[in-house]
Amino acid sequence: MTRGKIVCPVCPHHCALAEGETGRCRARGAQNGAVVSLNYGRVASLALDPVEKKPFARWMPGKFILSVGSFGCNLRCPFCQNDAISQAGASFPTTEMGPEDLAHLAEEFVPRGNVGVAFTYNEPLIGYEYVRDTARLLKEAELSAAVVTNGCMAPRLFRELLPLVDAFNIDLKGWRLSFYDWVGGDLAAVKENIRQAAAAAHVEVTTLIVPGKNDDSADMEAEAAWLAEISPMLPLHISRYFPRFLTTEIPATPVAVIHRLAEVARRHLRYVYEGNV
Predict the structure, then answer these.
(1) Partners of 67 in the beta sheet?
(2) Among 142, 180, 203, 244, which is least packed by CB within 10 angstroms?
């Protein structure tokens, strides 16, 4: 408690909330003396996607995965590609789907090549309880759980999910603290969670390149070298940005920039993929 407020433990923002207040993620709030998930079992988006779309390049190739998302995010990336749901709150229209319902639906799609559930679209780990509870059921059904995340979660809580999640795609949005200040994240927490996840599950990393913001070759050199210290086999997706949300004045990333940065990364990493080109 902080002066009568309850501190949320889930991400590095540690929002201090009075009763009835909502955190900056818009998906956690103070109720009855505790900070609880406001989007538990509330599905805003659901699709059977190719695994490669998440993106995963070296996990379950050629398969499909039931992809689910809700509302809210603890970052505010000005270039967000899913801002309609990531920047929404509890008033956003959703469908109720508890962990048992979602796990059962995943089983129904197995004949269509489904391998499990991917928690994606918004930031799934702000509602980590839903991920945790569903993943336990998927394990019992011998299905997989995948998480596509910005990685900006308190490392202590992140560790609790590691035995339950088979694959992560984690955004490493930029290499400089100034970039993470721009998006409202915590670079140190993301790096620690990449390290933790890589020791326990399949991990791929994505960096979306925004012109003039994180397209410096020296930064990519440092990022790729750091990832190679974890494993030179760790796949890195270097993806092209398109104008969205609050950055419509910044043009799309030139394809040549993606090629240049991918060549830099390949000095350190075996598997580098160029996305959205």
Answers:
(1) 47, 118
(2) 142
